[in-house]
């Protein structure tokens, strides 16, 4: 999220906090996507989290929110969190299982393979274009950002 904020000239701290907190309730709701983000909203509102951050966190799960994403931060979070799953899945099929080996064109190719990482919502990833970043460039930005923390990711 920090890399996307930098690319779009947005507040890097706000965007990075959004990324860090977006799944704060996933274990509390036991992965229930009908409740995911609604519990986060309660927790974070009580803690006084910035309303824009809170809104993006709630909206990254449109199913529970009951409405469509509209803001740049909402789209960026949904696309960003989703492409990371596709990037990790792509990394794990490489012989060396190293993120450094993954190229943007490989991720874009995997986007077209609906049976590969089938649970990854490709429509969410394509929201990158809604915020003005073409898919190839979006994949490149995200891979580069993930590479910066590859040791922490174990990839």
The helix count comes to: 11
CA radius of gyration: 15 Å
Largest sheet: none
Helical content class: 55-70%
Cα distance, first to last residue?
19 Å
General form? globular
Write the element-wise H/E pattern from the N-terminal end onward: HHHHHHHHHHH
- Tally of domains: 1
Poorly predicted runs are: none
Q: What's the total count of β strands?
A: 0
Report the sheet-strand fraction: under 5%
Q: SS-based structural class? A: mainly alpha
What value does the average pLDDT take? 96
What is shown here, in short?
This protein has 155 residues and is mainly alpha-helical. It is 62% helix and 0% strand.
Helices and strands, with pairings:
Elements: H1 2-8, H2 12-21, H3 38-46, H4 51-59, H5 62-65, H6 72-93, H7 104-112, H8 122-125, H9 127-130, H10 135-148, H11 150-153
Helix pairs in contact: 1-2, 1-10, 2-4, 3-4, 4-6, 6-10, 7-10
Give a written overview of the molecule.
It is built from eleven helices and no strands. The mean pLDDT is 96. It has helices at residues 2-8, 12-21, 38-46, 51-59, 62-65, 72-93, 104-112, 122-125, 127-130, 135-148, 150-153. 62% of the residues lie in helices and 0% in strands. α6 crosses α10. It has one domain. The relative contact order is 0.13. By secondary structure, it is mainly alpha-helical.
């Amino acid at each position: 999220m920090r890399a996307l904020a930098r690319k779009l000239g947005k507040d890097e701290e706000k965007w990075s906090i959004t990324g860090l907190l977006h799944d704060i309730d996933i274990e509390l709701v036991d992965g229930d996507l009908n409740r995911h983000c609604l519990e986060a909203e309660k927790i974070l509102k009580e803690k006084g989290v910035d309303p824009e951050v809170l809104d993006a966190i709630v909206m990254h799960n449109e199913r529970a929110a009951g409405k469509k994403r509209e803001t740049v931060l909402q789209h960026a979070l949904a696309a960003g969190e989703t492409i990371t799953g596709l990037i990790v899945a792509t990394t794990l099929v490489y012989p060396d299982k190293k993120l450094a080996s993954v190229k943007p064109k490989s991720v874009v190719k995997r986007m077209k393979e609906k049976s590969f990482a089938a649970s990854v919502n490709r429509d969410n990833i394509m929201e990158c274009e809604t915020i003005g970043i073409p898919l190839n460039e979006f994949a490149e930005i995200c891979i580069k950002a993930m590479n910066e923390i590859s040791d922490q990711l174990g990839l």
